[in-house]
Amino acid sequence: xxxxxxxxxxxxxxxxxxxxxxxxxxxxxxxxxxxxxxxxxxxxxxxxxxxxxxxxxxxxxxxxxxxxxxxxxxxxxxxxxxxxxxxxxxxxxxxxxxxxxxxxxxxxxxxxxxxxxxxxxxxxxxxxxxxxxxxxxxxxxxxxxxxxxxxxxxxxxxxxxxxxxxx
Amino acid sequence: xxxxxxxxxxxxxxxxxxxxxxxxxxxxxxxxxxxxxxxxxxxxxxxxxxxxxxxxxxxxxxxxxxxxxxxxxxxxxxxxxxxxxxxxxxxxxxxxxxxxxxxxxxxxxxxxxxxxxxxxxxxxxxxxxxxxxxxxxxxxxxxxxxxxxxxxxxxxxxxxxxxxxxxxxxx
Lengths: 167, 171
What we know:
The structure holds two protein chains of two kinds. Chain A is 72% helix and 0% strand. Chain A is an all-alpha fold. In chain A, helix 1 runs antiparallel to helix 2 (31-50), helix 3 (59-84) packs antiparallel against helix 5 and helix 4 (104-111) crosses helix 7. Chain A is elongated and about 55 Å long. The termini of chain A are far apart. Chain B is 22% helix and 29% strand. Chains A and B meet through helix 1, helix 2, helix 4 and helix 5 of A and helix 1 and helix 2 of B.
């Protein structure tokens, strides 16, 4: 093993930083949170490199680290929400088709209304375009549990979308 | 083929420049983080007869912190930058046993030297805990010094600097 210092990361820092930040900011919608998570992702990358646990340091790898940090953030947020609220109902709504065309901006706004785990699942599945199996891995859930979560998250998103659209 | 309307959510990564102050501060953090090769932690290994008693002695009485205790025959402690490895001889894999079968033994006279702020009060505390003293507080050159034994009979020297005490000058 060569030097395991942060040299390789520093070398691509200026190029990688806008990509990692550009991944995080639209997904979490807050400069403060995006900066925190960006810093967490880069410091986690340094730690992984020092432990010899990092592959070649590339932008896609760093975005993967950032994705884990984003999921962790929503998981923490999810815990807070659970401690504040009684679990909702209406999770098993009958299938309710979307319109032919959806308003993309309103859809993203509706997504921001959801709780942490639902937001995480939909973000990984649709914004990032991951397969269900990969979403499950990121969330630390079984594929079956993830499919259930996605169904509920989509129902919640639809309610949120309709609410904002009917306003 | 039916398309999922939520595919409209797909969001490719578009680079966004963060605040320059944030970018610079984060880079400084990354560069400041010492690598494992930069740290050069001084490491001492002591052979001990009873791992539990030894960890208790060093952590409770001499301000070490337990970092690892992965097995009943090995522990890693830290006191500031000093790393102390405690091994029970003849334990797992018996890596310290010589080819002729010689097993390392605790004891002897070589010792690690730990600096304390107030030697008299440290001595009082150790005495209350019935720690074995090889010699009581003596005044040496530029230090006051005390030699005690850990529970396995390994010597540990404690010093308090006095006038003329020297450490390597900062370069």
